[in-house]
């Protein structure tokens, strides 16, 4: 059916109008035609010739800023005149709003509200069963989804509320059409989009996958924002893992056929619903940030159910079976995968390998620009994953709906105050009970981590701060709702989470460099007391106390020592064990009891064997014997221990990114200092222990390590 669109009133001699005015007039005209029904929903109405130029000229921001996060459309095959008007005008609408929200706000919202109203009316009129044999109105589905996402980006309460309602009916309508069923999708492709040309088949197949994946994401975001249960469940996602971003954005058949040879083909052998439900999935080597993000989204139903059970049990004054630990383990396991993949991408950029290559988009003729844009995309995806991780953590450990109810009830007008006072008192009681639990502290740690990450990104001018990131806004909004002072009835929690006063006793270039670097890496406030090596051992660098006086802090007079308020912790494994409590979300002591035991095993080995028996014997043989004649033999033995230890470290890093598990731990930091001392034993680390060498090269590039090295006046050893 062709559109019943008026040709317009432009005639020769009509005064020229500015480009922006032409766009505004076009938006208004299309909005009116949508409201009047002249542009039907559910049919692929083409773009009228009158609107071709201005619509075509307003897609840059969409594909440059929106598409990377929501790759719903196939960019390489997008042609305005061959694409539905509903999709094309939605692209232009989003582009104009992203470019100049103040300039286009009124006309954009006028068009958006017209589209949303028409979409709602269309979905409310169910199709008869025999119509499901017809081709799915795919471009209408895409336009609906784009407008739902746009409403979430805009953030207006009324728009988000309407989008949330449309999202629910949209999911139900797609269920009715059995849209989520892979057999149905295959049948649609066979009957309505036949062919054998590989790029064609991939495009048809993956646009179906990507619409479902994007709907799953926005359903999670809207559910969190509206304090609701999700509408779409991961078990419904009956599709295999999508192609990589790189293949989906291959501009040109020559580029497509070049990239398809680099595609990890095994991804198509795994059902996405099974992958994202299992942190130990056999598909782990194939995971991309998008998959991990979906896994985090997929935890929402269980987290939401747990929150309801806890709330109802608390109201009834009864205990409940707590499944928080299982959900927490899953959250942390996926967080570890984010860190693992992040490390792999930052390393793979240098050698052009997977997973970095999965994010190459356009600009094959300019590899430098292509790499820069890929890295920007990766950083935005990492930010989205981490913010979703913290959002789910806040959902798990707090009850945002209850906290929001307290906030809303606290600002009612005096006329209604008497009516809400009993409910407000009840909510305050529940909030005070929660404030005394360990969960309240964990929630606040997630909240602080969100603010710390956003502040760090802004200071570094990271790419994710250059465009709208609704997950960050949602995380910050939820963070601000978590009360943390006595005014918010959180006195006990506020007192429990106050950061202790930390004092690190350290000496330049010594093993204390490790806790020094870690504190800087995770931006933990501390005071440093610098020591130096004197004739009797370490003493204050400024001469304010002797080694004998320092032994009141550290009985052996060694470094490091960490004073926590009025308590002092010595020995590296103990110090690092305590430090893990300062930023538990980083999981630097491992995930789960086995990993934590392995981390402890390594820390004890590094301190006791490598440091104590190896370097201790080589550098200070007098600790082992007062007989100077024995010192040469002791040093030789110490050097042998160092070599044996280095081999153990090197072997542990063969074909692995990290020494323990699949993410960064304290062990990865700790081995750095011993590599710095290798020259003392005349060991050429790069030649003799290449895996160890490559590992510490990467560790030395970490911000906190670089800051500590510079602060201690040292040179970079592996630059």
UniProtKB/TrEMBL annotation:
It comes from the Eukaryota. Residues 499-587 form the GST N-terminal domain. The keyword Transmembrane helix does not apply. One of its GO terms (biological process) is DNA-templated transcription. Residues 592-719 form the GST C-terminal domain. Keywords: Nucleus. One of its GO terms (molecular function) is DNA binding. Belongs to the GST superfamily. PANTHER family: GLUTATHIONE S-TRANSFERASE GSTA (PTHR44051:SF8), GLUTATHIONE S-TRANSFERASE-RELATED (PTHR44051). This is GST N-terminal domain-containing protein. It comes from Gibberella intermedia (Bulb rot disease fungus).
């Amino acid at each position: 059916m062709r559109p019943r669109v008026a040709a317009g009133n432009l005639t020769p001699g009509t005064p020229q109008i500015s480009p922006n005015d032409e766009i505004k007039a076009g938006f208004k005209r299309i909005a009116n035609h949508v409201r009047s029904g002249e542009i039907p929903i559910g049919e692929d109405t083409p773009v009228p010739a009158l609107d071709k130029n201005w619509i075509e000229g307003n897609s840059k921001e969409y594909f440059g800023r929106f598409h990377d996060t929501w790759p719903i459309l196939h960019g390489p095959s997008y042609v305005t005149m061959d694409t539905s008007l509903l999709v094309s005008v939605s692209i232009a609408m989003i582009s104009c709003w992203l470019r100049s929200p103040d300039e286009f706000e009124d006309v954009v919202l006028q068009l958006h509200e017209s589209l949303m109203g028409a979409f709602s009316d269309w979905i409310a009129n169910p199709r008869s069963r025999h119509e499901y044999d017809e081709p799915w109105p795919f471009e209408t589905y895409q336009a609906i989804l784009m407008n739902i996402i746009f409403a979430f980006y805009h953030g207006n309460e009324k728009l988000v509320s309407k989008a949330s309602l449309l999202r629910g009916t949209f999911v139900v309508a797609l269920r009715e059409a059995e849209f989520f069923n892979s057999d149905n999708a295959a049948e649609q492709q066979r009957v309505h989009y036949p062919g054998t040309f590989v790029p064609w088949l991939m495009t048809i197949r993956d646009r179906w996958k990507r619409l479902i994946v994007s709907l799953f994401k926005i359903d999670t975001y809207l559910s969190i924002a509206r304090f609701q249960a999700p509408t779409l469940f991961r078990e419904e996602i009956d599709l295999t893992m999508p192609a990589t971003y790189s293949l989906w954005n291959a501009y040109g058949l020559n580029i497509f056929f070049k990239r398809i040879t680099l595609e990890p083909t095994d991804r198509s052998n795994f059902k996405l619903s099974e992958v994202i439900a299992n942190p130990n999935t056999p598909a782990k080597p194939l995971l991309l940030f998008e998959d991990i993000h979906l896994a985090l989204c997929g935890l929402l139903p269980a987290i939401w159910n747990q929150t309801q059970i806890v709330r109802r049990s608390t109201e009834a004054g009864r205990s409940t079976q707590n499944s928080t630990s299982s959900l927490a383990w899953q959250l942390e396991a996926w967080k570890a995968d984010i860190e693992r993949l992040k490390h792999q991408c930052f390393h793979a950029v240098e050698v052009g390998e997977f997973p970095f290559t999965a994010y190459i988009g356009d600009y094959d003729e300019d590899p430098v620009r292509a790499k820069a844009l890929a890295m920007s995309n990766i950083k935005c995806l990492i930010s989205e994953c981490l913010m979703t991780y913290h959002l789910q953590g806040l959902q798990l450990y707090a009850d945002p709906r209850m906290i929001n109810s307290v906030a809303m009830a606290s600002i009612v007008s005096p006329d209604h105050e008497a009516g809400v006072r009993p409910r407000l008192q009840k909510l305050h009681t529940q909030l005070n009970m929660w404030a005394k639990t360990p969960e309240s502290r964990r929630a606040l740690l997630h909240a602080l981590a969100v603010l710390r990450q956003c502040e760090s990104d802004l200071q570094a001018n990271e790419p994710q701060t250059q465009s709208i990131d609704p997950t960050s806004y949602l995380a910050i909004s939820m963070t601000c709702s978590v009360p943390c002072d006595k005014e918010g009835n959180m006195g006990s929690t506020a007192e429990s989470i106050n950061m202790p006063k930390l004092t690190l006793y350290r000496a330049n270039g010594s093993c204390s460099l490790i806790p020094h670097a870690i504190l800087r890496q995770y931006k933990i406030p501390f005071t440093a007391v610098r020591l130096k090596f004197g004739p009797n051992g370490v003493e204050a660098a400024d001469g304010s106390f002797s080694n004998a006086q320092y032994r009141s802090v550290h009985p052996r007079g060694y470094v490091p020592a960490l004073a926590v308020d009025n308590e002092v912790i010595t020995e590296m494994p103990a110090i690092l064990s305590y430090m893990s409590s300062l930023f538990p979300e980083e999981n630097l002591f491992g995930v789960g009891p086995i990993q934590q035991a392995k981390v402890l095993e390594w820390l004890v080995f590094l301190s006791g064997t490598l440091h104590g028996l190896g370097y201790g014997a080589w550098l200070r043989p007098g600790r082992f014997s007062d007989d100077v004649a024995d010192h040469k033999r002791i040093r030789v033995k110490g050097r042998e221990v160092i070599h044996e230890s280095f081999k153990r470290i090197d072997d542990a890093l063969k074909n692995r990114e990290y020494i323990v598990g699949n993410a960064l731990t304290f062990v990865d930091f700790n081995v750095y200092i011993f590599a710095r001392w290798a020259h003392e034993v005349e060991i050429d680390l790069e030649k003799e222990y290449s895996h160890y060498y490559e590992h510490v090269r990467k560790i030395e590039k970490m911000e906190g390590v670089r800051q500590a090295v510079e602060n201690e006046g040292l040179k970079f050893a592996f630059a």
